[in-house]
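INTERNAL AUDIT FORM
Audit reference: QA-55
Scope: verify that the stored structure record matches its stored sequence.
Auditor: D.O.
Record contents follow.
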Amino acid sequence: RELDKQKELIEKHIKIEMGLIKRISEKIPQITDEKVKLLLNAILADEKRHHKLPKQVLEVIIRGETITAEEWLDMMWRSVPFHGAPGG
């Protein structure tokens, strides 16, 4: 079934992201270079924001609910500060 394949793919993606978030979180306290620490904190914040979307998609697949195009767009773009243009 196609939804099962999509579910597996998204679950794998979530697991990979969770591992990355965990590794970065563990490394940051060990970093002494403030520039590197700043960069890792930015990456971590971005990963945490991005991590919400696959979890929402998985929720939709598991529940098997229908979702409108508007709801998909809202999920995809909700946490993006600038939607492709300077200043939003």
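Auditor finding: record pair retrieved intact. Helices lie at 2-27, 34-63, 69-77.
Action required: none
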